[in-house]
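Researcher: I need the complex structure. Ligand is NAP. Inputs:
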Amino acid sequence: MKVAVIGGNGQLGSDVVRVFKERGDDVHPLTHAEIELENQDSIQGCLKSLEPAVVVNTAAMHHVEQCEQQPEKAFAVNAIGVRKLALVTKEMGATLIHVSTDYVFDGEKGRPYVEADAPLPLNVYGNSKLSGEQFVRTINDKHFVLRTSAIYGTQPCRAKGGRNFVELMLKLGRERGTVRVVNNEVVSPTPTIQIAAQIYELSRCDDYGLYHGTAEGDCSWYDFAREIFRAAGMRVDVQVAGPNEFPAKVPRPKYSVLENRGLKRLGLNRFTEWQEGLQQYLNQSAAVAS
Ligand SMILES: NC(=O)c1ccc[n+]([C@@H]2O[C@H](COP(=O)([O-])OP(=O)(O)OC[C@H]3O[C@@H](n4cnc5c(N)ncnc54)[C@H](OP(=O)(O)O)[C@@H]3O)[C@@H](O)[C@H]2O)c1
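Model: Output:
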């Protein structure tokens, strides 16, 4: 199958490329230098020359603070840009698999969100991603919108730069022997390799629609840090950071846990518990490093 991956050199995109390649597909990673979501001619020129059966869009403007400072730009990429992509893929007859976020919810539910729950984003990023989802769902019938959460992978996140949370904790733990982490935000930390495997499964079926796709279970960032050191066999003192120690500049959902109800109904859920995903990641990065 011919597959184009937009954001193909990103944290998630590079694992998507890897998984589809390993399973024998004809994969075309597209970097920002090759395709610009804000420009319909760029999307059209790039995709029409390839004629992929499936387009996976992992690209987004997703630095939450930058989105808040530049709302026009966030909507130009995450909403209007995605609309352009939906129009081009529809015209080509291609399936569009689009990655979205838990930040479409306000985090007030107190129980895992299912696909049928009404979104209510708290910030520009979440609003722009929700708008992008809606364009995809209304324009191209052959779509999958996959909402995921707190992702980490072996390739660094290009938008946020530096290390992912796991690598940052390992570095700070090694250097300082103690870390302070907030426990007032609950998520499902999800490794990109599992999202990529899930996207592959979706590309093989025609149960189009909106899906939640995150690791099973949930934890605060504090719990996550403790588990990172336990799984890595490191003795590090993990302390709860005070409420004003790392003040959020932009409102974020406090509890954005998603239930993969749609995937489970179809017997398609490929995610493990978050602790198992973390162990797989640590094994994978140790293997990469050795
Ligand atoms: N990070 C999280 O915790 C999280 C949580 C839930 C959902 N998500 C979603 O997961 C997806 C992937 O995130 P990631 O961490 O893999 O991101 P990433 O590493 O920053 O990669 C994003 C890719 O998109 C490209 N890109 C950005 N703007 C573009 C544009 N206007 N046109 C074309 N390409 C563009 C980037 O290229 P350049 O870097 O060269 O600009 C990069 O290759 C995003 O859709 C995000 O909303 C992330």
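Model: Summary of the prediction. The two ends are 33 Å apart (CA to CA).
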